[in-house]
Amino acid sequence: MGVRTLLGLNKQRAVVSNESQNPATNSTLFRSLPWLTDRALDRIEDFLNNFGGRARALELGAGASTIWLASRTQLLSFEHDPQWAGQVKAELAQRSISADVQLVPRPYFYRLEEFPNASFDFILVDGRDRVECIRRARRLLAPGGLLVIDNTERIGSKDKPGRYYEMTYLLSEWACEHFKQVGPDRTGWEARGPWMTSVYTRAAGTSAEAGYEQDRSDPYHEIDTTRTKGGVRYDLSLFTQLNEEYRSKPLVPRPRQYDQSSVADHGAKRADFLLGKHDLNGKRILEIGCGRGEVARALARKTDSEFLGVDISEYPDWSTPSERVSYLKADLSAPDAPDIGKFDFVYSLAVWEHVHHPYAMIRKAYEVLKPGGILHLYCNLYRGPKASHRYREIFFPWPHLLFTDEVFEQYYRSIGQRPKGAAWVNQLSVADYVAYFSLAGFSLQNLTFSKTPIDEEFYKRFEDVLGRFPRFDLEKDFLRAILIKPTTTDRGVNPFKFIKR
Length: 501
Hints:
By secondary structure, the protein is an alpha/beta fold. The chain folds into three domains: 3-216, 3-Layer(aba) Sandwich (Rossmann fold), CATH 3.40.50; 217-228 and 236-246 and 395-421, no CATH class; 260-387 and 425-484, Vaccinia Virus protein VP39 (Rossmann fold, 3-Layer(aba) Sandwich). It has 18 helices and 14 strands. The protein has helices spanning 3-7, 38-49, 64-70, 82-94, 130-137, 167-170, 210-213, 220-225, 236-246, 260-277, 294-302, 358-368, 399-402, 405-414, 430-440, 456-461, 463-466, 471-474, and strands at residues 56-60, 74-79, 100-103, 120-125, 141-150, 175-181, 195-201, 284-288, 306-311, 325-329, 343-349, 369-380, 443-451, 476-484. It has a seven-stranded mixed β-sheet with strand order 3-2-1-4-5-7-6, sandwiched between helices. Strands 10-9-8-11-12-14-13 form a seven-stranded mixed β-sheet. Helix 10 packs across helix 11. It is globular, with a radius of gyration of 25 Å.
């Protein structure tokens, strides 16, 4: 068994031969240059030189690149392997180089939710779960910044997609340079076959959120609007045909109404549901995403608790006096969110799916809860049949998974309405939520779902697209989680224990 296998370092391609292969240090685990192709490294160095050592860099997967980048940038590096992270930190210390190397359990891409848009000038993806890291890292890159991905020879082709093929859709609007290496690199090391590092540039005019919002259409929408498979083309003609087929059996037969009376009735029903689950008397209670405030007002009429409703928009209803209910316009997921104190109970109803930084919001909920406090979360799931939120005019299931926003807009124009796409919904799956709860520190007490049975005939017609998603997710419309902030640091509860299909 070789040294690399013993140390579990094979993924870093660590050099374990004599010192002449690594002249910059006496270490046998690190070479003098990152494991990137020569021309890509030149491109990166030219870019970083413009910052004079002040570039904000993020590295997903530590290694020789950590040593090299740390001497040229203000570096934050995530690594999941404790032994390897320790080796990297020891090497940095030996060379008297400063960097923030953090040990982050897999999947470490969840940590990316903690950062605001445009937090970094340079991002290197060279560790585990690369496609998901790319998906979530795009919004973090500043305009003009570089996103570097190694081993892109694994992309494959349209006819024979490889492990990283999905990234071609995630980054389809980005300027790209592919740097292929054939033969030995500058250190004398030679890959077993062609090796490629790709450098993507975020255009200066691109919105920090644009790449993130493309998640709704990448990769699934883009694939199916640029090709025909099995004689099916996902265009306006098919969209209209499906809507007529389902007009007599709409996905949501009686959509919610938004007149004043209906809103008040809906708020009262939600309040009664919460009261049936929790003792809400004598508490300080926070509603995240309160909207007009109808639920908080209904609860205030039936309890003696104090309520704060927070929303990113201000509503005229807030001006109506209501005893023990106050309102605040704020984004609690933002780094500069106001201090709102501590609460005994936090709830959010059908809002979290629209939050652009859901993990940051979960962390905020944990932060404002007192030990032993409860978070009651109810949210729409992206992979469910109703997540487009357009069921008043669109009657068939999963339209947002099958069609692009452009086709949605064409359909709305065709019926004489203002063009609009599917509602913006973050792509969190059930597994994502469970992982977020655990990472934030919550103890998961109960997790249930509202479901729509899968229309098997419809599923079989479009299995080329729908089959890319787990059936477990496709039938689930809403998630309801009851979470407790532990009174101790013990997190020994299995986070999947309370999942009910």
